[in-house]
Amino acid sequence: MTQEVEKTVVNSWNEWDDLKHVIVGRADNCHIPPAEPALDAKVPEDSDMRGQWGRRPQESIDHANELLDKFSIQLENRGIRVDRPTPIDFSQPVTTPDFYTASQFGCMPPRDVLLTVGSEILEATMSYRCRWFEYLCYRPLMQQYWEEDPNFRHEAAPKPRLTDEDYRPDYLSDKIGVEKRLEWAAKKFFVTTETEPLFDAADVLRFGKDLVVQHGFTTNEKGIEWLRRHFPNHRVHSVNFPGDPYPIHIDATFTPLRPGLILNNPQRRLPDEQRQMFNKNDWEIIDAAQPAHNAPPPLCYSSTWLSMNVLVLNQKTVCVEKSEVYQAEQMDNLGMEVIEVELRDAYAFGGGLHCCTADVYRESSFEDYFPKQ
């Protein structure tokens, strides 16, 4: 007797209701991409990533995949359906009429590419040349969901040209320094210009009727306006975090846990004027616990604040990286059941527990959590 395959239903409106179906990335054939404007701006001047490029060592790829596989099993053991991408050959160059780059990146962080809003999954523009074709890794799943769910909407934002006009040459220097970066961040002077709409899906947080989008290196104001026009039934809010010298992706800075409660990176606090929406509606924004590590893993782009890059399974349960003991303790004190997940050695492939996943289905609905605007 053959087991009937579960049909897909795409539905997810927020970051905290019961997770039932998720995509978990893979580390196969992951590359450190060659220098390009968007990437150079992201890498700190003193980082061991400076000047590095090429395929990551197979031993590290195998270990990262082992950790991602174990995480997938943990989720499946809790009754959550897990799908996985189909990696492409990331050693191939990307060539368009407008640019050339000698290799690609990987498909460990589906959260960067895919934004699920209700019954729609939207492919982001992406602002890195090396990530131009990353969406292809998820197309087999999108095609499957299309066949299985008659209400599923598969959308793709307009592909940007990513010419040199999309990037500020000011960020090409390797001697900018943190002080200058913070000054620029406070002025909203980021590496991406306003030539065309640019956004990464990981810059968007979903609060039912409201979408909160970070303006920074990977998402510009035109990208936020594109999202505003694309989702006319939503209220789309632009936020920024002046304390972040490398503002890329919101999910290691601002982490909603349940209605009324958000963790905020204490080094990158939301400005007072942007807190009004939350204050008016009695949401509490609290400082996240300190990271357990004082440095990221080797050859990792991300900061130590991946400690707060958690995956909320429901309003009482959260996945936290196993070594992040202070973050786990805070979650416990907030009344959350903590699921420990070993993932730190996979951080270098694209991020933490939120990064390496993308929602397909949560038992959620289109609710207004901010009636007082």
Write a structural description.
This protein is of the alpha/beta class and 373 residues long. It has one domain (19-362): L-arginine/glycine Amidinotransferase, Chain A. It is 18% helix and 20% strand. The strands form 7 sheets. A 3-stranded mixed sheet has the order 4-1-19, with helices on one face. Strand 16 (311-314) and strand 17 form a beta hairpin. It starts with 18 loop residues before the first strand and ends in an 11-residue tail after the last strand. The mean pLDDT is 94.
Chain-wise SSE layout:
Elements lengths: L18 E6 L6 E2 L4 H6 L11 E2 L2 H19 L4 E3 L10 E2 L4 E2 L12 E4 L2 E4 L15 H10 L4 E4 L21 H9 L17 E4 L2 E5 L6 H10 L4 E5 L14 E5 L2 E4 L11 H5 L3 E4 L23 E4 L2 E5 L3 H9 L3 E5 L15 E6 L11
Parallel strand pairs: 1-4, 8-9, 11-12, 14-15, 17-18
Antiparallel strand pairs: 1-19, 2-3, 5-6, 7-8, 10-11, 13-14, 16-17
